[in-house]
Each structure stands twice: as C-alpha cells, then as structure tokens.
C-alpha cells in the first residue's frame, strides 16, 4: 500500500506501508520450518509457532 508522509510544515513525500514480517519457526504439515510471516497471521492463529525443545545436559 502506498501513501504520503506529511510534515508539520506540510512537506509531502511518498512512503510505503509494508507488512510487519517476523522470522518464525512454524509447524507446517507436522514438520518445523523457518518462514517469514506477518504478525497479524501469528495473532489470528493462522500460523502455529513451533515449541522450542529444551536441551538436556
């Protein structure tokens, strides 16, 4: 999506609205995969985050 930034002095410049992408380890078809997904998809439950496995020492 595109828009304009408008300063207090009303100087106008072009800007772009980018999605908020995060790098996430997600469960896809039973396997964990690293992907870039938007935060809205994470919050709405469209992407299931993979649980971290604790190392036993």
Considering the chains and any ligands shown, give keywords for the structure.
single chain; mainly beta; 4 strands; elongated
What does this structure look like?
- The protein is mainly beta and 57 residues long.
- It has one domain (2-44).
- 11% of the residues lie in helices and 46% in strands.
- The protein has a two-stranded antiparallel ribbon with strand order 1-2. It has a two-stranded antiparallel sheet with strand order 3-4.
Order of helices and strands: EEEEH
Radius of gyration: 18 Å
Biggest sheet, in brief?
A: 2 strands, antiparallel
Name the average pLDDT: 91
Structural class given helices, strands, pairing? mainly beta
The number of E-state strands comes to: 4
Question: How many separate helices?
Answer: 1
Sequence stretches where pLDDT stays below 50 over 5 or more residues? none
List the helices and strands and how they pair.
Blueprint: E1 2-6, E2 12-16, E3 21-28, E4 31-38, H1 39-44
Antiparallel strand pairs: 1-2, 3-4
Provide a concise account of the structure shown.
This protein has 57 residues and is mainly beta. It has one helix spanning 39-44; strands at residues 2-6, 12-16, 21-28, 31-38.
